[in-house]
Specification:
Layout: E1 13-17, H1 22-33, E2 37-42, H2 45-53, E3 61-65, H3 71-85, E4 90-93, H4 108-136, E5 139-144, H5 156-176, E6 181-188, E7 191-192, H6 197-204, H7 206-216, E8 223-224, H8 229-235, E9 247-250
Parallel strand pairs: 1-2, 1-4, 2-3, 4-5, 5-6, 6-9, 7-8
Length: about 260
């Protein structure tokens, strides 16, 4: 899709979590290229600073380094973001992961940690930001989930919280559909992005990745994050009003379930 397809994002005010690497990093680059004002949140201060300096207009970008599984950091992020931008037009919740918890009998603390990371941070940001969007009768909140929302392809903990995220998006999107605020989800299959789990795994265990590709991916290749960007940009656009409450799979045939 041409990079000028969404010039309506010029001067839009966008918050992206998980922006110091992975898909969040790629999203930040796209919105910056479209001329948006950005608040970028992530754990790695140095990576965020490097990303900001790479943009043609770094003065339009604020970075926030902190652990968003802690409510105090979320509150500080939103406070500083509002001071920098005024109000937000778009939220892109990319923060998430499995923390490497592989034991199916995970502890209460582990499950709570996964919940905070994959659902809690997004829900708290929404709680603080969406009332202004509702008042303005316009806004977009996009949540990056996984095809694990629909089928048990990963660990028990990861599957559980991603399924919960899909339920949250469906429920909140339905509740807010009449307000002009569009809440949606994106459910990617396997993809490469800077520093993400698949990029690390292919370096550490290439044979494992090769077998996964042969057994699970009809295209016989893992996607690139850039292939997901057009869908995210669409869900943040004025054309997405009918998508309220929808979680959209984008997996090149990796998924096998009929019901998203």
């Amino acid at each position: 899709m041409p990079s000028n397809a969404y010039k309506q994002f010029k001067d839009k005010k966008v918050l992206i979590t998980g922006a110091s690497g992975g898909l969040g990093h790629v999203c930040a680059m796209e919105f910056a290229n479209q001329g948006a004002h950005l608040v970028l949140a992530g754990r790695d201060k140095d990576k965020l600073t490097t990303l900001k300096r790479s943009f043609p207009r770094p003065e339009k970008v604020m970075t926030f380094a902190g652990d968003l599984t802690q409510a105090k950091n979320i509150h500080q992020l939103v406070k500083e973001g509002n001071e920098f931008l005024g109000q937000f037009d778009i939220l892109v919740h990319v923060l998430g992961g499995g923390y490497g918890f592989r034991d199916p009998l995970l502890s209460w603390e582990q499950l709570e940690t996964l919940h905070r990371l994959n659902i809690g941070a997004a829900a708290e940001i929404n709680r603080m930001v969406l009332p202004d969007m509702i008042q303005n009768k316009c806004g977009y909140s996009v949540h990056i989930g996984s095809i694990s929302s629909m089928e048990a392809t990963a660990s028990v903990g990861y599957n559980t919280v991603k399924a919960s995220l899909a339920a949250y998006v469906r429920s909140l999107g339905r509740e807010l559909a009449s307000t002009g605020v569009v809440v949606t989800g994106v459910l990617p299959g396997a993809f490469y992005a800077p520093g993400n789990s698949w990029e690390r795994l292919v370096k550490q265990k290439p044979a494992v990745v090769k077998k996964f590709i042969e057994d699970n991916l009809p295209r016989k290749e893992i996607a690139d994050a850039q292939e997901i960007i057009p869908l995210i940009m669409f869900l943040c656009s004025e054309k997405a009003s009918m998508m309220a409450g929808s979680c959209v799979p984008i997996d090149a045939g990796e998924g096998k379930t009929y019901l998203p």
